[in-house]
Design brief:
By secondary structure, the protein is an alpha/beta fold. Helix content is 35%, strand content 22%. Strand 1 and strand 2 form a beta hairpin. Helix 2 crosses helix 3 and helix 4 crosses helix 12. The protein is globular.
């Protein structure tokens, strides 16, 4: 942990609304307001709630977000992406007269989201585990320059575990153990930079990070490319035409992959239309097809996951595996984790705004003075937990009497 000089407190810079929770990774930024219902997000790129961390340098003024995503495969040489892990490093992206570093690119992102976040009493950020303390300090400086009232930061796995600690401890442990037993949970996340595994220990006093692995060779970009190539090959077998021969057709196919994965995860049949200037081809894909396309990546991921599935040496197997919504989209990964884990380990995919809601939870606790003013990357203390069985017992110090009639 390291101490930071956070922005002024809400009492000094009140705006009349509660704090905002922000999830930031190498793929996107997503935000929600404390106390809001699930699915109610802050629009960061109208009308979309999430802002994609892709910048196009094709035009005179760099283009950020969905517009830049529309030329990722068509003109990859003008794209600046996956820059968050390079924060504070000299690496640059150049095209024409544009010369972006990770710091200037993230500064553009913060300038963009500063206005929608300005109406809230500060913003709490949850960040990927691969950012170092010096990079988090740099991120804090950039947020201040963009006038974002950054009230605290934590790593995403710890934030998710802290928010869900009460329900985790209330559930019976494996083997019928008593309520409140400490246990371990494995959290799986993915972004454009890497696939990540984390082991978190949850007990009555705190949630603590035990170990983690960041795997850049299994990041979201590789899975997406694998799917694009496999679907293109399916198209070649169907009509002897390859969408990769046309930049426009390849870009159009690229933009259909993520919605295709979302429909397949919902149990729907995924329809893809491959379009070129003078031809088109309809393809119908099932979840089994998508899983087969990515079987080699799943096998590589399971090899890396085995130490986490086995659990720490002194504690046995984890009680649960939680996949973020992005990790849950990876074809075959959730099923492979289920097959390679113990029968007593529950596998669950979290909802898409889980990280932002976890940030709101920490922001609320920080406003009450329950959290240290540090970047929370090692442990997060938990509030005292009251046994619900005690709440139903009558207080022996209070005697009841019936008035005389």
């Amino acid at each position: 942990m390291a101490l930071f000089q956070w922005s002024k407190s809400s009492s000094e810079r009140a705006s009349g609304r509660g704090p905002a929770g922000v999830e930031l990774n190498s793929s996107r930024v997503l935000a929600t307001e404390a106390g809001s219902a699930r699915g109610k997000l802050i629009p960061l790129e109208e009308p979309r709630s999430e802002l994609r961390l892709v910048i196009s340098m094709e035009k005179k003024t760099p283009l950020l977000g969905q517009g830049a995503l529309g030329v990722v495969r068509k003109a990859p040489h003008v794209i600046c992406d996956r820059y968050l892990p390079e924060l504070g490093q000299p690496k640059s992206w150049k095209h024409g007269r544009h010369n972006l570093t990770a710091d200037s690119a993230l500064g553009m992102v913060f300038d963009h989201i500063a206005k929608p976040l300005s109406v809230f009493e500060g913003s709490w950020f949850v960040l990927p585990n691969y950012l170092s303390l010096s990079q988090v300090q740099r991120l804090n400086v950039l947020a201040e320059k963009s006038k974002i009232r950054l009230t605290g930061t934590a790593t995403l796995p710890l934030a998710l575990a802290a928010e869900r600690a009460t329900s985790f401890l209330a559930a019976p442990a494996s083997g019928g153990s008593a309520h409140g037993m400490p246990g371990y949970v494995v959290i799986v996340d993915v972004d454009e930079h890497a696939l990540m595994f984390h082991t978190i220990r949850i007990d009555e006093a705190e949630v603590r990070s035990i170990n983690s692995a960041t795997l850049p060779h299994l990041g979201w970009r590789l899975w997406n490319s694998k799917l694009l190539d496999a679907i293109s090959d399916r198209c070649v077998r169907a009509c002897r035409r390859d969408p990769r021969d046309s930049a426009d057709a390849e870009q159009d196919l690229f933009e259909q992959i993520e919605p295709c994965l979302e429909r397949a995860r919902a149990g729907q049949r995924a329809e893809i239309i491959v379009r070129a200037a003078h031809w088109y081809q309809d393809l119908s894909l099932t979840q089994a097809d998508l899983d087969a396309f990515c079987s080699s990546l799943c096998s590589a991921a399971i090899v890396e996951a085995r130490p986490f599935l086995a659990g720490p040496n002194d504690a046995g197997i984890p009680r649960a595996i939680w996949l973020t919504a992005a990790a849950g989209l990876l074809p075959g990964l959730a099923l492979a984790l289920h097959k390679n884990s113990s029968d007593r380990t529950a596998v669950r995919v979290l909802h898409s705004e889980a990280g932002a809601h976890a940030a709101c939870y920490l922001a609320t606790r920080a406003a009450a003075g329950e959290l240290p003013k540090t970047h929370l990357d090692t442990a997060i203390p938990l509030p005292p937990r009251v046994d619900p069985r005690l709440l139903s017992r009558p207080n022996p110090s209070v005697s009841s009497s019936t008035p005389k009639g």
